[in-house]
Amino acid sequence: MTSADPSTRLTDHSLEKQTSPARVLDVGFWGLTLLLAISAGAVLLWVIVQTAIAATPAIQEFGLGFLWGTTWNPVTNVYGVLPQIYGTIVTAFIALLIAIPLGIGVAIFLTEGFAPNWVTTPIAFAIELIVAIPSVVLGIWGIFVLIPAIKPVFSFLNTYLGWIPIFSGNAAPGNSILIVGLVLAIMIVPIIISITRSTFEVLPPYLRNGSLALGATRWETILRVLIPAGLSGIVSSVMLAMGRAMGETMVAAMLIGNANRINISWLRPGSTITGLIASQFGEAGRTQVAALMYAGVVLMILSLVVNILAEIIIRRFQNVE
């Protein structure tokens, strides 16, 4: 009777394991995903570096004064981007002010059994379709449908609430900061609904059942148990929506009016960084192109700050959980 050497069997087994198709597939998939991840980071870094290089002449000429300058004059080559920073932040704020309660409310309606599936399923499908509408179509809809329809509301706000600074002054007949905020809210609300809905759906069932078993009402369970438990997901959706609102270009370019001034009143025209770039890049001279690229760098820094704040807030809420 003969027996094989154990060390030989171990070596053969290891060799077979290393060359098996499954092992090769695992290593290949790992290498491919690593390559894709590095490529994504490299592309992002490439965009940032190239934008910064193109903006260098304007950075050298205008320095940090570009951030609080209020003049944008291609004739004299004097550029400042403060009205556009103000317009970008205010329009995103208005959009979030409308979209957050609406988005969270719809997500609760869709997930907490307020209506049968034959009602909630078409609603959820319609909400997802809004994301597929191109922003230029929403811009045209805003010009030809929303502005004429909402003009009486603006007149009412201006007449009866004009003592509030944001509704003061004469209401503009067409484009305004508030119109952009409304259309941006329509664009970002599906993001908040989709992520918040997914957050509520993956919450453990014992949270609902336990709360109801202890005698809490449905609304007490939603407000005191489910929303706090899903707060990190809700905050993530809001921050993602804010990034979309700040970076939206076509709607801002078509509806805000491109007025290079800081208007406290939301009923007056304004300007955003994306709208400025879209409206002037095609006919810009050399210095103006550099100034527009500088404005693009400012927008990227704003977006980066928002994302960092979002990450800090999400981690804080996760720690609370």
Structure characterization notes:
The protein is 76% helix and 1% strand. The chain has helices at residues 6-19, 21-62, 65-68, 82-111, 117-131, 135-160, 177-201, 205-213, 218-229, 231-247, 250-255, 273-280, 286-320, and strands at 72-73, 78-79. A hairpin with a 4-residue loop joins strand 1 (72-73) and strand 2.
List the helices and strands and how they pair.
Elements: H1 6-19, H2 21-62, H3 65-68, E1 72-73, E2 78-79, H4 82-111, H5 117-131, H6 135-160, H7 177-201, H8 205-213, H9 218-229, H10 231-247, H11 250-255, H12 273-280, H13 286-320
Antiparallel strand pairs: 1-2
Helix pairs in contact: 2-13, 4-7, 4-10, 5-7, 7-10, 8-9, 10-13, 12-13
What structural keywords apply?
two-stranded antiparallel ribbon, mainly alpha, 321 residues, 13 helices
Summarize the structure.
The protein has 321 residues and is an all-alpha fold.
Main sheet specs: 2 strands, antiparallel
Query: How much strand content do the residues show?
Result: under 5%
Low-confidence stretches: none
Question: What percent of residues adopt helix (DSSP H or I)?
Answer: over 70%
> Main sheet: which strands, in order across?
1-2
Q: Can you count the helices?
A: 13
How many beta-strand elements?
2
Whole-number average pLDDT? 84
Shape: globular
Protein structure class = mainly alpha
What is the terminal separation in angstroms? Answer: 65 Å
In sequence order, what are the helices and strands, one letter per element?
HHHEEHHHHHHHHHH
Radius of gyration over all CA atoms, rounded: 26 Å
